[in-house]
Structures are given as structure tokens and as C-alpha cells.
Specification:
This protein is an all-alpha fold. 67% of the residues lie in helices and 1% in strands. The longest helix has 30 residues.
Length: 650
């Protein structure tokens, strides 16, 4: 017999062609495959390890004070993952992911703000996912060599680069790890169920849900798995469906409890993007979105953080963006159904591809400029490569039955070539995710008409001090979309740096007319007032801001105190800071913690050495774990002041 037995969905198990070598090598195959797979994966992603924090890393990691202070861990675990932006009583995002918060806390404790450690951790988690994926595929009936090929493609597919190389994409890896772990445990308990085994499976599934809400679709995967297994065992459709439904119910219950808890935390089942399109637009865009994802599965050679695809209205529909994708989908769906009826591996592969992808099609909760993302393919890719690997094996089996005795060698060569081509493509694409400038240069290259991409590239240039390049990109973004608030903010910031204060004021006032509580516009306009000598107007603006935005009370009060001091009113400055001593005692935000330093300066200038020493000491103690660059000069100044001030007697 050639290789192991592969099971068929319809009919009895039968011996079929596999990619496995003769039985003498069967024992060492898994070890060799694992060693080669790990080596290739590490080699492909090695170029990404030296990258910087990019994109949302700057917010979710670098500026996230909730993951740095033990006294704030509970707040981080019981709020959405963007709660670090400030507590306003409402969620900032759709994402309550406590497991991700724990992951970030552990990474910060281990690596601080060194990107290498965070990127290594993501790569390590990816390797764990690969091991679990292999176990799932083997238990679903694929021969070990075919499973190894599928996992090899899954590991090295260029569409995985965004997920593996970008630390903020960790929710996808963590969800996949716990979900595949739950599935392996579930398949093991089927022959011999018990309470302890069920608890373990449901615990793993709960961790998957707490990693990313997309795991709510897993009951559908369990249902499909049980149905196809039941049909394979020649059960009637009704009996197979009844067993499948009863098996999925425990997971439905756990998912329901999760959704309830999530609702209590976020205050809503879902938070749509401001100005999000309606359901009709989602349905019109779905064929193009599905076609894009299918293209990235089979031909992943033009990948980017951004794509040309945008939400469609009836007036936007044309041949290329609607009719042709619709034809492709209508052809692909029957072909997929035919494959599903042919063999269990096809059926379950298609289930693992389609079911996790469903939620990504409703883009109303996404930034309208980013409705397609490669990271949404992370888990669906496992299903897609399962189908591809099984298809390669089946084609080789047909050739072997027709007398083509080299079919095994050809199949192996084709499989190795697929892995090599994908690995080379991923190796080239990886460095794109190593810096913001490279990332968004690739974005505007792939989607030159996407205003958001030009704005992001402008931000990256601005952070590097490349003001001319930043201005060009911000202006390009505004030309593409005059209503893009971010472009006005960017141009205003550049104008402030270049001392074009009239133009800066015009941009910030434009934003505040539309969004009166926009924080960056308010803060930058106050800076404009300060730099043009209009200190009273800057104070008035910050005072309005702290009344409108309670979560900014501490930061804006410190700013007001600084402005009073600059205008020669130290008594008022001291009074402002003393009015927020309660906030200073519990604050962790750098903008608020500066208040201790300024309070020390004011006390020292007023001759109150004892209180100055206390304020400086508080500042140094409370900022010891803060890696904010802007605080370093204040640290040095506080230490110098303490070295010359007389210490109070004990």
C-alpha cells in the first residue's frame, strides 16, 4: 500500500495516493518536516525582527500606559484595548481582548519598548500555531506529508507577514493558537468524552474568544466537522445534523456568555465607524472583497497595508469592481461545493476558509479606507492551503493510476516549488513592515488613490522631521479627499513647526468647526496661540477642553499651569497644579506626571525647599517605569535640583 489510508467523504475508507515516502521513512517524516519548517519560517521572518514599532504599535504599545503599571492592570483587563486613550465612560473600539492585554503586559515586562523582543514573541507564537495546525490536519485525515505541505505553505505564505511581523496583529495569532488547541482537544475527546476533557476544550475556546471576538464562529466549524464525520460513517443526513447541532451547543453557550460580558464592557454589541456605509453597500462590495482575498491566497505577490478597494454604492458599480468579481464568486461557489461533496478534507478545508472570513466581510466597523486587510486571512489560509494540498495529492493520484509512475516525485517537486516561491515572496515583503516610512510608501504605491495612505506616509515623514515630504503627502491626501480631517491636522502641525501660524490656525479651526472636541486640533491650536503670544486664548482653549473632555483634565491643567508661569503668574500656576494633586497622586500619563516637576520648580522659586524636594521626589518615583523620551530632560533637571536642595530633617 502506498502511504497511509486517506478517508473519503462518500463510501468506505480506501487506500489512495499520498505524498508520503515509503514506509521505511514514515517514522522520521514528522521530525524532519518540523525541523525544516521551523528553519524555513525563522529564515523568512529573520529580516523583520530588526524592525521598529510601526503603525498602531505606536499607540497600543509605546503610548499604552495601562500595560506598564500593575495598579492599572485591572482597568486594562476590563476595558476595550484602546482605553489608554482616556476614560470617557464609553468604549473607544469594538475590541475587548483580555488575553491580548495579558500578552502585552508580559511582553512589556520581558522586553520593555524593545521591538525585537515583541517581534520574536510573535514569531514564537506563530510556530506554536503551526504545530497545532499540523495536528488538526492529520486528525482530519490528511497524510502527514500532505499535512506538512499545507502547514509549510501556511507558515510561509506572504499574506502571513502582516500578522507575524507586526506586533499589534498578535490577536490573530493568539486566537488561532487557542482555537486550534481547542479543536485538537475536541477531536481527542470525541471517542471518549468526559467532564474534565470538556472543561479543557471549553477553557481553550474561552481563551480564543478573549483573544479576538472572531472566535464566535467556531460553533459553525464544530457543526460542520461533526456533520461531515457523521456522513462519512454512513449516518443519515438527519442523524448527522442532529449530532452536529448537539455537539456545537456547548460552544454556542460559551460564545453567548462571552458576547454578554463583552456587551457589559463595551456598552454595545458593535460600534460602527462614523459615517459607515449601510448593509446594502456591504453586499455590493462583498464580491470584490472576496475576489481580492481569493487572489491573495493563490497569487500573493502584490501585498500592501492598503488596497484600492473601497465601499461601493449602486452608482459606483461597474464591470471591474462589481460584475466581474460577482461572476468569479458565482463560479467559485459551485466549484467549492462540488469539492466539498467529493472528500472530507476538501469539505473541512473550505469550512476553515469560509467561516472565519465571514465576519471580515462586514467592514462597517473598520476604517473606511482599510476595508481589506491581509491579517484577516490568517486563520482562513489554513483552510485554503488544506484544499490546495489535497488537490495536489489528488492530481498526482490520478496521474499514478494512469501509469505515470513518477507522479509522487512530480507532486513533491511541485509542492517544494510552491513553498519556495511563497517563501521568497514573503522574504522580500517582510522588510516593508520594519518602518513606518517603508510601510506607507508601499501603501501609496499599491493604492495611489487612497487618501489615508498618503496621510499616514505624511505622518511617518513628520515624525522623522522631513517636513517638506510630510507637507507634500498631507496635501496629496487633502487633494484626494478634501473632507479628510487627518490631512488638515497634519498640515496644521507642519505649519506650526515651520512657524506659518496663520495657515496652522486656519486648518485647526476648520477641524474644530466640524468636530468641536477633537483633541489634537484643540492642543495644536493652543500651541499656535502660545507661539504667537496669545497666552490668554491658549489658556481659554485648554480650559474649555478640560470641561468638555474630563479625561484630559489632568493634562490640560498642567498645560494651563505652564502657560500661567510663562505669562508671569506663578501663583496662579501653582494654584492650578495644587487643584489636581489627587490626579497627580494616581496619574501614569506622562502629560500629567510633568505636573510634579513643574510643582517642584514653582515651590523652589517660592523658597519652599521642603515641598519642592517632595514634588521632585514624587516626579522621579512615579516616572521610573516611564520610557517617554520627552521626560528625560525633566528627569535630569529634577535630579540636579535634589542634589543641591537641602533635605528636610527626619
Amino acid at each position: 500500500m502506498i502511504g497511509p489510508v486517506w478517508l473519503s467523504v462518500a463510501g468506505r475508507p480506501r487506500a489512495e495516493f499520498s505524498l508520503e515516502r515509503p514506509s521505511a521513512h514514515a517514522r522520521i517524516w514528522p521530525s524532519v518536516a518540523v525541523a525544516v519548517g521551523v528553519a524555513l519560517t525563522v529564515a523568512v521572518y529573520a529580516r523583520t525582527l530588526t524592525g521598529e514599532f510601526v503603525y498602531d504599535d505606536q499607540y497600543e504599545i509605546v503610548q499604552n500606559h495601562l500595560i506598564r503599571h500593575p495598579d492599572l492592570y485591572w482597568t486594562a483587563l476590563t476595558t476595550d484595548i484602546w482605553a489608554f486613550r482616556g476614560s470617557t465612560g464609553t468604549a473607544h473600539s469594538n475590541y475587548w481582548r483580555p488575553v491580548v492585554v495579558v500578552w502585552k503586559i508580559l511582553n512589556y515586562e520581558l522586553f520593555g519598548l524593545r521591538p525585537l523582543g515583541w517581534r520574536l514573541a510573535s514569531l514564537g507564537a506563530h510556530l506554536v500555531v503551526l504545530g497545532l495546525a499540523y495536528r488538526v490536519l492529520v486528525r482530519h485525515g490528511l497524510a502527514p506529508p500532505a499535512s506538512a505541505l499545507a502547514v509549510g505553505i501556511f507558515a510561509l505564505h506572504p499574506a502571513q507577514v502582516e500578522t507575524v511581523a507586526w506586533p499589534s496583529a498578535a490577536p490573530n495569532i493568539l486566537m488561532a493558537a487557542f482555537l486550534l488547541g481547542a479543536h485538537v482537544a475536541y477531536l481527542r475527546l470525541r471517542p471518549n468524552p468526559g467532564a474534565a476533557r470538556w472543561l479543557a476544550v471549553l477553557a481553550l475556546y474561552s481563551l480564543a474568544l478573549l483573544s479576538k471576538e472572531g472566535a464566535v464562529v467556531y460553533p459553525a466549524i464544530v457543526l460542520a466537522t461533526e456533520y461531515f464525520l457523521g456522513r462519512e460513517q454512513r449516518a443519515s443526513r438527519r442523524a448527522a445534523l442532529a449530532t452536529a447541532v448537539s455537539s456545537a451547543l456547548p460552544f454556542v453557550f460559551v460564545a453567548g456568555v462571552f458576547l454578554l460580558l463583552r456587551y457589559l464592557v463595551l456598552g454595545a454589541l458593535r460600534i460602527t465607524w462614523p459615517g459607515a456605509p449601510g448593509l446594502g453597500s456591504v453586499l455590493l462590495t462583498a464580491p470584490a472583497l472576496l475576489t481580492l482575498y481569493l487572489q491573495h491566497v493563490v497569487a500573493p505577490f502584490e501585498l500592501s497595508p492598503l488596497y484600492r478597494l473601497v465601499a461601493l454604492s449602486p452608482a459606483d458599480c461597474g464591470w471591474r469592481n462589481f460584475a466581474l468579481p460577482l461572476v468569479i464568486v458565482l463560479v467559485a461557489l459551485p466549484a467549492m461545493c462540488a469539492l466539498a461533496c467529493r472528500r472530507r478534507a476538501y469539505a473541512l478545508g473550505l469550512v476553515w476558509f469560509a467561516v472565519p472570513l465571514v465576519l471580515a466581510l462586514d467592514f462597517r466597523v473598520f476604517n473606511p479606507y482599510e476595508i481589506a486587510k491581509d491579517r484577516y486571512l490568517h486563520l482562513p489560509l489554513l483552510g485554503a492551503v488544506t484544499v490546495l494540498s489535497q488537490g495536489l495529492a489528488d492530481l498526482a493520484a490520478v496521474a499514478l493510476r494512469r501509469g505515470f509512475n513518477a507522479a509522487r516525485r512530480v507532486a513533491v517537486v511541485v509542492g517544494v516549488l510552491c513553498v519556495a516561491v511563497l517563501a521568497a515572496s514573503g522574504y522580500r515583503y517582510g522588510p516593508v513592515w520594519c518602518s513606518d516610512v517603508r510601510l506607507w510608501e508601499r501603501g501609496v504605491e499599491a493604492a495611489p488613490g487612497n487618501a489615508y495612505g498618503h496621510n499616514q506616509l505624511g505622518n511617518a515623514c513628520y515624525q522623522l522631521g522631513q517636513l517638506a515630504d510630510a507637507r507634500r503627502e498631507f496635501q496629496h491626501a487633502m487633494d484626494l479627499d478634501p473632507a479628510l480631517v487627518l490631512a488638515h491636522l497634519g498640515l496644521g502641525a507642519v505649519d506650526n513647526r515651520e512657524r506659518r501660524f496663520a495657515e496652522a490656525e486656519r486648518h485647526f479651526r476648520h477641524v474644530l468647526e466640524k468636530l468641536p472636541d477633537q483633541e489634537m486640533a484643540l492642543e495644536q491650536l493652543a500651541l499656535t496661540y502660545q507661539q504667537t503670544g496669545r497666552v490668554a486664548q491658549a489658556i481659554e482653549l485648554f480650559d474649555r477642553g478640560r470641561r468638555k473632555l474630563p479625561h484630559k483634565r489632568g493634562t490640560y491643567t498642567v498645560n494651563i499651569a505652564v502657560l500661567y508661569q510663562l505669562s508671569g503668574q506663578p501663583a496662579r500656576a501653582r494654584a492650578e497644579l495644587e487643584s489636581i494633586r489627587d490626579l497627580l497622586a494616581s496619574a501614569v500619563e506622562p502629560g500629567v506626571l510633568r505636573g510634579w516637576f513643574y510643582l517642584g520648580e514653582l515651590y523652589r522659586a517660592g523658597g519652599d525647599a521642603a515641598r519642592a524636594v517632595d514634588a521632585y521626589a514624587q516626579f522621579l518615583a512615579r516616572t521610573r517605569r516611564t520610557e517617554e523620551v520627552s521626560l528625560r530632560p525633566l528627569h535630569a533637571a529634577a535630579e540636579q535640583a535634589l542634589s543641591i536642595l537641602p533635605r528636610p530633617s527626619p
